[in-house]
Amino acid sequence: MRHRAGWRPDERARWTFSGGLGRPRSLQASPPMMSSFQCEPEGLAAWNLISLPSPLTHSPKIKMKRNKKKSFAKQRQHSLSHKVHLTNIRGLHSNLVAVHHHLETEKPALLFLSETQIRCPSDVSYLSYPGFTLEHNFKPRAGVCMYARDDICYRRLRNLEDSRFSTLWTLVDTGLDKIIYACVYRSHSGDQETSGLTQHLSEAADAAQQRYPTAQLVLLGDFNAHHQEWLFPYQCTDHAGREMRKLAIALDLTQLVQGATRVPDVDTHTANCLDLLLTTDPDRYSVSICSPIGSSDHCLVKSVSVYSPPDPSPRGTRRVWRYKSADWDGLRSFFACYPWQPTCFSSEDASSCADAVADVLRRGMEYYIPFSDVKMSDQARPWFGAECDRADALKHAAYRAWSDARICKASDVAQKKKAFNRAAKSCKKVLRRSRFDHISRIGNKLASYPAGSKAFWSLAKSVESNFCRPSLPPLLRPDGSLAHTAEEKANLFASLFAESSRLDSGGARPPVSPDVCETIQDLSAYWSRRGNAPGPPSSGKGEGGAKQNENIY
Fold first, then answer.
1. CB–CB of 110/183 below 8 Å?
2. Which of 43, 52, 42 is nearest to 24 (CA)?
3. Residue 125 half-sphere exposure, CB side, CA atoms within 13 Å?
4. Dihedrals φ, ψ of 425, to 5°?
5. Is 143 among the domain residues?
6. Residue 328 — pLDDT band, cuts 50, 70, 90?
């Protein structure tokens, strides 16, 4: 059952958003010279306090939709990364800033956290982070949660969860295949509770595979298990280790984590592999172990699919036009006075003429409409500065030095362990201070603007938009598949509305609409068939005739 998946750095899948682009400076070009523009980092520092999404006209998704040669499934597979991270956070409250920092910098597709150690609050919005959706199963001394990136299509499988255990089941649909993730946290409980947990996982996995027979199965989390022949460091076996190995054999799962994941608090303690990742498709993933997040005593486990697509991050620059500041009168005069005949009939090829006309239109826009060429950055880091970068790098370096010394059984393991603890605490303080300074800068900037001014509301809406998710989540079709695109969701809504709107006639004939007199001729013909002609409502014979004429009129 032992499977060692080698980690190759070149197989890492990266995903970054192009949000947080700085406010471009307007530029007025004067004919006939072309002028270039380059954004300077100093000019973007103030505007980069808020991570804003890219304008819709420049979104890379629009480019993908215009490419009709690729199917939608391939487009979706290309846009999704396959980075799934796992760790025992040992208290989400105390490490919330570090978790948000990890989401901001790494942008994993899924981040699973175990041992959150919080009660389920009435409002979990303070735990959320822009660009990610939080799914949770919180418990006071246990609990698990998941941060899913907004472009990931997933569905929570609550019917497979049991309130007695800290589990979270999720179905992820990449467009080409389905993956079932089960995040588990097993506390240091007795043998009876452990047997009940393994039985629940076995029954839930069977139900999930029966419902989705083609889906892959991935069990991951902190199992607190030891097995002499199966789990690192291969020294002892307990009841949890035996139960977990039986479960892996029954479900045909392979364990991919082959190193110590818990950082011991005492130097004499042994570093064990407690965080496991078991899957039915082991050849698909490559697993690595990194330094812990925040003050956690468990390492971060990163799994990357070896079939990950290339990095779809936007490169180069994009041009932003300032239409509100355009000189429309000058543009009209330019187009009116331009010699169009040589341009429109410059060649017998219609495509060449169209390109020539397009060049003239673009030239006129560059003359009379201010524009900016903005560099498309790889990542938006509104609060993660150079100081945080240095502190994070020092923490990773200290962890790597301690890990290598522990593996080699060097004499200075204790000193390097203390150096790692100092670096981890220092990194946590730096991240917390940087986040606080970022929030303070936003508050001071809002306070400096006049209340109700355009600048005030622009910044306020930008802040508010970071915590909104306007997109409609994927919808479940009757056949079990998921509707991803707007067209598929609209068609699904239409079909459901049509099904729910049908009337049961019970075999009765539909009602016949009465004759409607739309013109004077129709009204005359109607009275001719009745054998009398109407008069004004007041001249009817008696009260009944007046009411009848009034109704007809």
1. no
2. 43
3. 6
4. -65, -40
5. yes
6. very high
Residues 6+ apart with CB under 8 A from 231: 225, 241, 255, 272, 273, 276
**Encoding tokens for residue 45?**
């520092």
CA distances from 315 to 105, 211, 495 (A): 18, 42, 41
pLDDT band at residue 332, thresholds of 50, 70 and 90?
very high
Amino acid at 321: W
Mean of the pLDDT values across residues 14-41? 38
Percent share of the chain, pLDDT over 90: 39
Contact 92, 119 (CB under 8 A): no
Residues 6+ apart with CB under 8 A from 323: 369
Compare 409 and 53 and report the one with higher pLDDT: 409
Lowest mean pLDDT among 67-76, 131-140, 162-171, 466-475: 67-76
Residue 90 lies in a domain: yes
305 assigned to some structural domain: yes
Any idea what DSSP says for residue 411? T
Tens digits of residue pLDDT in 343-368: 888 888 888 889 999 999 999 999 99
Would you say residue 392 lies in a domain?
no
Q: What phi, psi does 82 have (nearest 5°)?
A: -125, 40
Question: Based on the domain organization, do 91 and 144 belong to the same domain?
Answer: yes
Burial of residue 126 (CB within 10 Å: 0-12, 13-18, 19+) is exposed
What pLDDT is stored for residue 144 in this prediction?
96
For the sheet with 254-255, list strands across it.
Answer: 154-156, 166-173, 178-185, 216-222, 275-279, 254-255
User: What pLDDT sits at residue 40?
Assistant: 38
By residue range, what is the domain housing residue 548? 520-552
